[in-house]
Amino acid sequence: MAQTEPNLDHDISWLLLPSYWAKMVVALISFLCFANSYDGDFVFDDSEAIINNKDLRAETPLGDLWHHDFWGSKLSSNTSHKSYRPLTVLTFRINYLFAGGFYPVGFHVINIILHCTISVLMVDVFSILLGGLQFTSKGRRLNLAPKTSLLAALLFAAHPVHTECVAGIVGRADLLCALFFLLSFLGYCKAFKENKEGHNFSVFWVLVSVILGAIAMLCKEQGITILGLNAVFDALVINKLNLLELIQKLLHKDKSLENTGLLRKGLLLRITLLMSGGASILYIRWRIMGTGPPAFTEVDNPASFADSLFVRAINYNYYYSLNAWLLLCPWWLCFDWSMGCIPLIKSVSDWRIIALAALWFCLIGLICQALCSEDSHKRRILTLGLGFLIIPFLPASNLFFRVGFVIAERVIYLPSIGYCILFTYGFSLLSKQAKKKKILAVAVLGILLINVMRCALRSSQWRSEEQLFRSALSVCPLNAKVHYNVGKNLADKGNQSAAIKYYREAVRLNPKYVHAMNNLGNILKERNELQEAEELLSLAVQIQPDFAAAWMNLGIVQNSLRRFEEAEQSYWTAIKHRKKYPDCYYNLGRLYADLNRHIDALNAWRNATVLKPEHSLAWNNMIILLDNTGNLAQAEAVGREALELIPNDHSLMFSLANVLGKSQKYKESEALFLKAIKANPNAASYHGNLAVLYHRWGNLDLAKKHYEVSLKLDPMAPGTKENYNLLRRRLEQLQKKGGA
């Protein structure tokens, strides 16, 4: 169906492999690049999208996935990011169910397999984009550019900018989107399988392509752009339109338009099917998502909040140039580019304007060649390359709506297809001109080898949060979020002194960074530096009055400072902003207990357990308070209720055992003590209280044994030494009586 075109492979000194072997090589290279990420942890956004996402759990109805965003929030919520990716979340849920819990290996393995599959599909896609679409008489598609399609697929498979998508589990959205994006394109090409001289096509495969495009969009928003690319491909490859000639005729209202091929070969019908399908998909998504745009803050995307249109335009274009640079030189990679990582350009005297000029110089040059070149083959490849580079990037460009990031390496996954087309075409042109073609081929192999090593290094950094966050310090030293995450990781490991340093730097870089203030305030509170902790938390709630966690932590500090009325007010303010806040009710109960407001304390703890039935501390405090106030029957009832909900909690067993012992239910109390000790054998208080039980019960030898274990574990255990001495005197008295 296609005329013979210039062969890009002719001047390339490159190994010609059969299609099967070419795909095996691509699969192997893509696997080697990211294989070392298979045993990585859940890192960065994985916590929110997977670990804290209730949509993954079996108890959540499957239907909820269609009404929630990617992070598990209701799409109707004001806090929702409106990222509607139910099919991606469904794959996470399947991973979770098959693994029997949150084990990251299975999640990582699926991501690696997806990237390998996509890279293999790229061999077929690039063979069409670079060599054209042509079938044999038996309907078998020909690969007219086997060498260049292999090179382009290898460049795609081993591009370091893809690491975030493959090694970061949240990148599953981009991988699934890319998979169905490519299947949609290949499906569209199948529509012309039985085509003779371009007069017939299969409506079925066009519709299949639209459906696959819809599935791609349900994995990630960028997927819808494949419908536009299919239309571009149809116009350029199937109908061989000359875009410049078409534009000129449209501008001059030339009556010979019908001879351009626009009305021939069913192009208008196919474009209509693609456009109506795309419009329907977008409308349905709009209805599901709601009309409200997602809510982002200035730190997420500062350029979009600039008052000046000039500043916004300049900075958007600068972001585009940085994305282009990441494709050309993917050496400086970072998990997050927001929050001061890239300072705003505010005047034309800023030297970074050069990057914009370079970007547009290159783009205008490529566009001119794509439109004006006399070589139709060159026009087609350059236009397709630019199309695949630019069109999938449009949803992330800030042109149609504000996005929640400055730069995100994951959104370059699809646009990198266009980069690989342009790079490979440029290489073929250089090979045609070069006298020493083998040297050029070795140079390209060198680039591939460097990329493979860079992928392996970068994917190893994505294996743990510590490595990932620290790797960003040299790339984005001005990014407050990087310092915050390094500090948080250190704090989670118990290194509070080092964490304080990074939290302070995060607050210095961004004086309105309320989460850094909150975490720093928490550490200072634990170190009893209450005055500074209060100042930080007070500033945090002043900057963000609805920051419930900061209000609660402020209440804890005020309680420690014995400013009880202020603490109570802070707790209630936190609950006002987050009505379902079990930890805040728990701390409020502790405040009431300190004030001897026992009924209020019990009510607060009961609220905590209603909101979070597994809240062990709240249950324990209820049991202990009822025990201390002599309400043994009620304490026993609460203890039994708690153990039904949390049957393996040894602290609850211990508290209930104490109550049962006081109620002279020695046998049952003994069983619970022994069970608690089995779960936590090194708790001195467990052995000490069991010894007291045996002491009361008259089992003096067993009492002596457990007193001694308790004192061995904690020689300073309160009351244990006195009770042990009493027991020894009793035993001595019994021995004297026995001897007499």
UniProtKB/TrEMBL annotation:
Phylogenetic placement of the source organism: Eukaryota, Metazoa, Chordata, Craniata, Vertebrata
Protein family per UniProt: Belongs to the TMTC family.
An MF annotation (GO) of this entry: dolichyl-phosphate-mannose-protein mannosyltransferase activity
Protein name: dolichyl-phosphate-mannose--protein mannosyltransferase
Keywords: Endoplasmic reticulum, Membrane, Repeat, TPR repeat, Transferase, Transmembrane, Transmembrane helix
InterPro entries for this protein: O-mannosyl-transferase_TMTC, TMTC_DUF1736, TPR-like_helical_dom_sf, TPR_rpt
Residue ranges of domain DUF1736 in the record: 292-364
Cell compartment(s), UniProt: Endoplasmic reticulum; Membrane
One GO biological process term: endoplasmic reticulum unfolded protein response
Family matches, as Gene3D superfamilies: Tetratricopeptide repeat domain (1.25.40.10)
Pathway where this protein functions: Protein modification; protein glycosylation
Statement: the UniProt record of this protein carries the keyword Endoplasmic reticulum: yes
Membrane disposition: Multi-pass membrane protein
TPR repeat feature ranges: 480-513, 514-547, 582-615, 684-717
Positions of transmembrane segments: 20-38, 112-132, 144-163, 169-189, 201-218, 224-247, 267-286, 353-372, 384-405, 411-430, 439-457
CC per GO annotation: endoplasmic reticulum; membrane
The EC number(s) this enzyme carries: 2.4.1.109
Cited PANTHER family: PROTEIN O-MANNOSYL-TRANSFERASE TMTC4, PTHR44227
